[in-house]
Amino acid sequence: MTTMTAMPHAVEGWTVADLESLPADGLRYELVDGILLVSPAPRPVHQEAIGELFVLLRAARPEDFKVYVVPLDWQPDDVTSLQPDLLVVRRADVRARNIVAPLVLAVEVLSRSTRRYDEVFKASVYAEHGVASYWIVDPDEPSIVAYDLVDGAYEEVGRTAGDESVTLARPFEVTVTPKSLVSG
């Protein structure tokens, strides 16, 4: 019931500081322009894809990069706080509590409840705040679509599904085979 007492705080007007008062209840709390968004805990297939991608990215990353998994807040301003499923940052941009610098990569693994949010809404927020690369992974129909930020908008730089692989150059070279991300 703590969540119910927190929700009436408003449709808008939330700040990054307000997130500190929310319960650690397994839900994902995010802010966009001061609007609180709440998502349910992910399914096992979602977690499996996140884990496999983490291992893949961590093995390929140069030493000056760090790879993190959700939950970790990326807070580019006082009214925006997102938790990408995976995020890659420059080691120099890591702070003690959260990340505020533009990400070099944000990865979202789609869920039925967040598909449109990840594909449209989060993509526009990431682009607006200078996230250099954005990947969308679908664990149900194993696939990946990768985008790089060019002149303020995302351009597709790679796409594959199933057992086919794609090699992506940014933020560092890595080859992804979607089917290998889930045991299905």
Structure description:
This protein is α+β, with helices and mostly antiparallel strands. It has one domain: tt1808, chain A (Alpha-Beta Complex). Helices cover 20% and strands 33% of the residues. It is built from 3 helices and 12 strands. A 6-stranded mixed β-sheet has the order 3-6-7-8-9-10, with helices on both faces. The longest helix is centred in the first third of the chain and has 17 residues, at 44-60. Mean pLDDT is 88; it is low at 1-10.
Quick recap of the structure?
The protein is an alpha+beta fold and 184 residues long.
Identify the notable features of this structure and list them briefly.
Nuclease_put_TT1808; 184 residues; six-stranded mixed β-sheet; 33% strand; two-stranded antiparallel sheet; Restrct_endonuc-II-like; disordered N terminus; tt1808, chain A; single chain; endonuclease; 20% helix; alpha+beta
